Amino acid sequence: MTIDRRTLLKGTAAMAAAGALIGPFGARRAAAQAAAPTGAAMFTPEEGASLRLLRWVPFVKGEEDAWNANTQAFTEATGVQVTIDQESWEDVRPKAAVAANVGTGPDMVMSWFDDPFQYPDKLVDVTDLCTMLSERHGGFYEGLAAYGQQDGKWISTPLCAIGNAICYRDSHMKAAGFNEFPNDTAGFLKLCQALKEKGTPAGFPHGKAVGDGNNYAHWLLWSHGGQTVNEAGEVVINSPETAAAIEYAKQLYATFIPGTESWLDINNNRAFLAGEVSLTANGVSLYYAAMKDPAMAEIAQDIRTVNLPIGPVGQSVELHQTSTISIFNHCKFPNAAKAYLEFMFRSENMNRWLEAASAYCCQSLREFEANPVWTSNPIHAPYAKASQSLRVNGYAGPLGPASAGAMADYVLVDMFAEAVTGQRSTEDAIANAERRLQRYYR
Q: Are 204 and 281 in contact (CB under 8 A)?
């Protein structure tokens, strides 16, 4: 499902929306509260400045409300109007690439993974901003910092990791004969097989889902010790470890509800909340979607979350969705854009946004580990360390145009989809992925 909506944050309509902002703990937040500064402002907006931000459609309403309220407070403090365009997760990447290469459109983009590495020469150098943010807020996590830096400078500002974890129905797991959730891939397969036998199957996306599809495919590969490329950026996907990951994926796929090969990021949410599957991997948004609907009270009370199982590699290895904010070179008001980001990262504003996101967004800066959202609900626990534990795209090779291009082309996602659906044999699926990767890593 594609949702296209433009929100113009100005005037009384925005203030009314901000006044209705309610965080996950039931505390009403007025937009004016966001205006209190922490630290002196470092950037002065240009006279007459206005900005336009392209962002992904939110899955948690509170996150959107808090972002909009903080934006309105920035406008009140500076006079800079900010227009926010929302696009579906799948559409942000191509629209941002067009804007970068054509040189018109949004001034900033809230993008995915290493997308900025596809057009680094089209972006404003934000080394001054990110250095200041790092010094002021305890430093960026290593993995998220990697998504913002290239050749010793910052090309994008790391915003958050959207944690990914197993969401499952506790009663269905127990009905399938398991008192505790298995923490290894062998036990996990047995659970999925038992769930299918009980008529309460699992389901994971094998379609071109920016978040869930990539998270699942990378976990499959990494948990079995496979890699797309090595430290030198040489393609090494054709390996026994990759073959083992595919054979395991085939066995899991046999337990899934039909149709997962076409799932996008919204589909596993819908299937779980409709009672069609009782186990998938998702952000915490799935839990809150059930919590806010009285008709889903039974499902909401039955939901449990846990980190993805550990495979033969012997350690937890997860991708986790990451988002950064880039400023395009064609932005006429780069100081205003930097001032906007500096404002959004101020302690009280960032804490308010993280709290309202209900553990959906994991902070990029270490200061915000102390936000009470992470200990307010046991459901949040698997998501709390996403920024700290994530493994970057293209592991173990360097981030850059090759890793960004390969992900945007869904090479790894397609490899598993081709094999599990029988479109290609395991060997042919790997060979095809190898050919495609070699077009990027040359």
A: yes
- 322: closest CA among 228, 234, 432, 218? 218
Give the chain's domain count: 2
pLDDT mean by block of 10 residues, the chain; 442 residues: 33 33 35 44 94 95 97 98 95 96 97 96 98 98 97 97 97 98 98 98 97 96 98 97 98 98 95 97 95 95 98 96 97 98 98 97 98 97 95 95 95 98 98 98 94
| DSSP-derived secondary structure for 29-49 | --GGGGG--SS-----PPTT-
Q: Are residues 309 and 418 in the same domain?
A: yes
Burial 58-79 (b: 16+ CB within 10 A, else e): bbbbbbbbbbbbbbbbbbbbbe
Rounded to whole angstroms, the Cα distance separating 38 from 78 reads: 15
Which pLDDT score, from 0 to 100, does residue 41 have? 73
Gap between the Cα atoms of 214 and 2, Å rounded = 19
Which structure tokens are listed for 311? 């495979």
Per residue in 351-368, pLDDT tens? 999 999 999 999 999 999
Domain shared by 9 and 133, yes or no: yes
How far, in whole angstroms, is CA 302 from its chain's centroid? Answer: 25
Q: What is the CATH number of the domain that holds 264?
A: 3.40.190.10
Nearest to 122 by CA among 133, 111, 134: 111
Q: Calculate the CA dihedral of residues 139, 141, 145, 147 and round it to 10 degrees.
A: -150
The β-bridge relationship of strands 5-9 and 303-306 is unpaired
3-class secondary structure, 304:
strand
Distances (CA, A) of 87 to 59, 69, 114, 269, 416: 12, 19, 18, 18, 27
Q: Same domain for 214 and 326?
A: no
pTM of the model: 0.88
Measured CA distances, 205 to 264, 271, 289, 420 (Å): 7, 11, 19, 12
> 219: part of which helix (H) or strand (E)?
helix 212-223
pLDDT 10s digits, 189-201: 999 999 999 999 9
